[in-house]
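Page 42, continued from yesterday. The earlier attempt failed because a stray header line got pasted into the input along with the sequence. Redoing it now with the clean sequence only.
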Amino acid sequence: MSRRPSLKNAIDAAENLKMSNDNSFGAGGLHPSATAEDRRGVLVRVSMDVRRKLKLVAINRNTTVQDLLVEAIAAILEEPDPAPRP
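This time it went through. Structure tokens are written below.
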């Protein structure tokens, strides 16, 4: 009979995982070693369906939803500024 994994086993396994995105704050953004005081949260509300789809995409890419959203933000910030609207 096998024993159930303990919390320590889960923590040890999580510590051994490599971060999926070394530049998780995008080009020109905060350095990954920045302190918590240097970072701010951004709340994004989505439907349950979109949330589920994001989770599945993250699983398929072996990353997190957080990293997906940071990657999307970095891509937007790398685009040239659009012409001002009249």
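Notes: The chain has one domain: 10-31+40-78.
Reminder to self: strip header lines before submitting.
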